[in-house]
Amino acid sequence: MSISFEGKVAIVTGAGGGLGKSHALELARRGAKIVVNDLGGSMDGSGGSSDAALAVVEEIKALGGEAIANGGSVSDRAGAKSMVDDAVKHFGTVHILINNAGILRDKSFSKMTLDDYKIVMDVHIDGSVNVAKYCWEIMKKQNYGRILMTTSGSGLFGNFGQTNYSTAKMAMVGFMNTVQLEGKKYNVRTNCLAPAALTRMTENLLPGEIAESLPPELVTAGALYMVTEDAPNGVILQAQGGSFGVAAMMQNEKINLGDKATVDDVADHWAEISDMSNAFQRKPGDGLVLNKP
Ligand SMILES: NC(=O)c1ccc[n+]([C@@H]2O[C@H](COP(=O)([O-])OP(=O)(O)OC[C@H]3O[C@@H](n4cnc5c(N)ncnc54)[C@H](O)[C@@H]3O)[C@@H](O)[C@H]2O)c1
Prior knowledge:
Number of strands: 10
Shape: globular
CATH class of the largest domain: Alpha Beta
Number of domains: 2
Bound molecules: nicotinamide-adenine-dinucleotide
């Protein structure tokens, strides 16, 4: 099978380097027209220039592909809107959005300022929602849309020193869980990607021999599947170094302690209440079901 994105228009945010660049190049190689967005700032979110996005556009053009650069910030509403406007103006519409832009302000919760928290939330979750919101009606109207949110193992499972980042990354899952339901009847599918790859974001974190086994291109293989016509809906894909798998929410069977349950009853039954040996997967959309569906 050779998957083609011929005739598709994609926006990839934060595509001036790292994973986003890899996603944009492969989409372009496979025929998509691309809006290459990147603010071009430093890893902590300061500064900015459209040089990074322009360089990727040149690479795509050298491959015979079509792309335009956008230097807006996802966290700025006007910037987010400009990406969608550029897609419509230059290529007629948008079919695919890969929300990839990101920054880090790693510090323990004690040392993290509320500004460190806010800027990370602004870029990751607010930025992703901003661009998705401006794409949404277009995708619904054309009965086709694929949105990929970039989450992280840090959000799904936690990582010391990343409270701000973990919070933002888990919010991607919350957004997906509901929007995938609302998009279903319009053929707008939303998924999450939890990647691990050697990029400027991880070059000081990953030991050498592991880092070499984690090229961004091996994450891109999974990322691109999640925006194909056959993509699933509401799935978290984990991808790193050629290994792929999914992550999901689990719950156990609740124990009914009756209508007079007290804190003492909960304490007395804690071993049963917290026993996950009978756990089952909760699918997005099961949100209001009280117990096992
Ligand atoms: N590399 C990993 O192992 C890893 C693991 C988990 C999650 N992620 C996530 O993958 C995504 C890509 O990260 P990466 O590793 O390629 O890092 P990266 O730093 O190479 O890429 C992030 C890009 O986003 C751009 N950007 C930052 N703020 C922006 C804004 N406001 N508007 C537009 N662009 C902006 C940056 O300029 C940069 O080019 C991020 O969301 C990151 O959190 C990466």
